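Notes continue from the previous slide.

Worked example: a multi-chain complex. Inputs as given:
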Amino acid sequence: MEAIVLQILNGLDKGSAYALIALGLTLIFGTLGVVNFAHGALFMIGAFCAVTLSRILTLSHTVVDETQKDFLGNPLKVDVPYMMDWFGESTGAAIIDWAVPLSILFAIPVMIAIGVIMERGLIKHFYKRPHADQILVTFGLAIVLQEIIKYYYGANPIPTPAPAAFKGSFDFGAMMGFDPNTIIYPYWRIIYFAFAAVIIGAVFAFLQFTTFGMVVRAGMADRETVQLLGINIDRRFTLMFGIAAAVAGLAGVMYTPINSPNYHMGMDFLVLSFVVVVVGGMGSLPGAVAAGFLLGILESFASMREVLAVLPGLNQIIIYLVAIIILLTRPRGLMGRKGVMED
Amino acid sequence: MSKMNLTRRGVLKTGAIAGTGVAAPTIFTAQSAAAFTNEPTGSSVTLGFNVPQTGPYADEGADELRAYELAVEHLNGGGDGGLMNTFSSKALQGNGIMGKKVEYVTGDTQTKSDAARASARSMIEKDGAVMITGGSSSGVAVAVQALCQEAGVIFMAGLTHSNDTTGKDKKANGFRHFFNSYMSGAALAPILANNYGTDRKAYHLTADYNWGYTTEEAVRTSTEAMGWETVAAVKTPLTQTDFSSYIAPVLQSGADVLVLNHYGGNMVNSLTNAVQFGLRDKLVNNKNFEIVVPLYSRLMAKGAGANVKGIFGSTNWHWSLQDEGSKAFVQSFGTKYGFPPSQAAHTCYVQALLYADAVERAGSFNPCAVAEALEGFEFDGMGNGKTLYRAEDHQCFKDVLVVKGKENPTSEFDLLEIVEVTPTSQVTYDASIFGGELGSCNPGA
Amino acid sequence: MFGLDKKDFRLLLLVAVLVALAPFILNPFPEGSGMAQFNAGYPDLMQRFVIFGIFAIGFNILFGLTGYLSFGHAAFLGVGSYAAIWMMKLLTMNVIPAIIVSVIVAGIFSLAVGWISLRRSGIYFSILTLAFAQMSYSLAYSVLTPITGGETGLQPKINDPRILDGALANGGTPKANLFGLEMGSSFNLDVGAWVFTFNAGYYLAGIVMLLAFYLSIRIFRSPFGMMLRAVKSNQQRLNYTGLNAKPYTLAAFVISGMYAGLAGGLMVAMDTQVGAERMFWTASGEVVLMSILGGVGTLIGPVLGAGAIKYMENILSKINSDILHTWFAFLPDGLEDFVVTLIYPFIGKGWHLTLGLIFMLVVIFLPGGLVEGGQRVARLFGRKKKSTDTPDGKTTPAE
């Protein structure tokens, strides 16, 4: 029983990451009809926003410490961040410690700007081009973005820890009446889940309850008619692209304490996020979110050793196996619209 | 002038009739005109440095390449001579190899066996490399080793830790300086027993591919011999990035030690996740919960950050070693590049020097002569103390380091501290236990 | 001739001449010159050009004609490779059985995958094929290790059974051969400062590619090919005429799967090694990119795309800062360093960056891929005949 509860928690946590990425992707892919292979790269750039901010916060000057020696036997040079000089040791350290949460504020404008520039500068010209061309151009862009990051930050993962206040884990087991230490879950992952829920809610609310969102939804359904009504749908789509980029970027920022970011983390998520979007059904935002959670939970269950004892290797293929089963039983995924990307 | 004119083909060209427009075609099959593949006949010799330059191990590859460049500099008499001063064999003079200037070509393995072989083949076929070295995974090492055997050149493996490289997939033309899974297990177990007691329940998470299997097997056997019990062993996919669903059930299993048989990105992520779950703050069976990482590297420790603190593992070499060889290497590498070398850099540098030395001692670049000079070769002064290149499987036997994540690092490179230098005798095994057949050396002619 | 009209025959002839003369064409720079770095006329790369050419030609039969975008074709290549290496290990190092079996096995596997995946169209089809390929990769890398060798892959071993071959000479290594002619054997021709290498394996692969190319022209021009194009332009209308499109698309899928298997078998014949990475999604993606880069739906485009990508992968990645310095040694010191710093990010370990940029530039400025580039050049020189550059007579975009 504890094992099952635990894997549901895991599934929700994994699922929230999948759902968040798939949500951004489906805003572009399922609605604007652009196959965006650079979406993973946006997720990665979001994560590197956090890395960059923590680098900025720890900009340092060196102080030579005569009492210690470095590896060559010379006096050790110790880096002292300016933050500590300016705000004193403890406040400075606290600011640095909170780099990841602070990065949220930093990432939103950066990601929207990147999204808007990408759409205006490149994607706009590809709305009417065949999907094959979209794949090539966005894949090329993804490689370029990835290589730029690699050039400046190297290929090695960069540890970007959560603030000390969120270290450790919460004992669900004790709360729910199980033995202590059986169902524990890290605070930061719980925060990630909550954060994802808020973002997903916000995007839905924005599309559902604002005039802007209404127009965008209308534009998704029938772009030409909306244009004939004299509405400048292009500008709204540009902004939607920015929002999608910001959603991907925020997913990346918040992900950094979970796994140290590296330059190819976007590619690692890319295929998975496409699978999630398609399983959810093209053009359906709720579908993408539902598929994210579904795949997250099933993946978690497939990694249980009791399951693997019966079906070795199931954890290797579960996502794809589920995708095949769903697509064969439900022709347009969970909630796909007819005629979207079907030809 | 480019270095290319001194390769095999360049040499052939010089041999061809100059001045006339069309030379008489020289017909030969599989380089049969030469005594062996890519025999260097000019005033220089070309070595092929095949390292990952793209993909997740690119930084490790970059460090390997730095080490090779340093080795070439030293072989050609530049710099401070590095390990050539402390190396027990004095055959190297700093005038290249057998008086020929050392040139090199580089390639990108992408940590994929196909790409690595393509790159190695271009070095052999196009650039006339007489030796290939480098790499950062066992898959690549085994693939390139098999290629070198077929082509008739020497392969000096870079970072490869699987038992297979000198076990079931060993080849007469391939040599490995790096240690392997078996040695990690044998070196780690006594230290773990000393620190954590002999009454422990271990839970293994194992990367689901050959290297993971051999490592799990090695650590399991040697810890069980110490009295530990293995509660469970779960295989995790190579492509996994989030290990939460594998780590969460660990506490429920009653285990009090978690062994992460992971490398590279897998290890960074699984260790980060395990620490996140607060495993190390827990008391299980009235003992502190512990985590063990059988194979450590400094770059991985850097990726995992503060999470490595206090965690045991093994490593081939570490820059804080205080023997003369290690000090000399750290000195010349550190002076040139400004930071201490990684274990990958060390093993690659040593491999390049060992090859050059073997050629000098053999008096020939012929792979068979070189192999003979390396087989059973005993040396010292290259770090890791006295070392033997065993003739039966072309595996180096030397001291293995058991290390621990440092609690208070003074710099971004000072992440591990040496706990124990396990003597060679303790990690030596019988050459036949992993099967495989060495075959005989192939000069390619 | 050969059942081809004049235009197609000319194209086939052109490709045949290019394949035959590749050792000359790809080695334009004399040995020892600074530009020799750009020579691609060595056996491994020439073999890769034609093998990936075959892979891309086959892929184009499916994608270019029917518009079905498969994202899992690398799986067929991988399965073909495994079949081939097992034939070599068990039966004989002669490449003929290996290649034949690889085609058959890949054909059977693609029949199964195609039969299921073709129930859906568009992106749903792509994801289904991707899922099958990723499952093949994951399983081959892990639980199927006893059959596939997993991480370390499979190579011929000295103690393999090879029941049809005689015992190895003492100290010998098993080598792929065609009735005794080793695939690795080469003939070097020295002409002044140039060295041209004629490799047995390359010519075998080249002949196979010509056959594959010929077959693909015949398919493009056949009523079957016309039917496939009809599927692409409007499947619904096709259905209304009472025709069931599925047998046709399935046939195209299996044919292209067999092409992939053939490429896999040849890859093993040229270089006796198989690793599971060959089936990873990036490998499937690569053939998609090759087709688009060259020009989808054109006969020659995919081959050009395959050549371009493999050229960059193998040539650019080998240029290091040392070589750059030798190239620009004639410049004054400060300027030399500046130029090297400027170029350095794009070569060696930065070759991915160049690849990405080229993808973007080609698709932005040459919507029809490299073939369109050739066409524009041809138009620039005012040549009337467009046949050699556009075998199709038009650059059909993907959809």
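Summary box: Chain A has a mean pLDDT of 89. Chain A touches chain C through 44 residues (CB under 8 Å).
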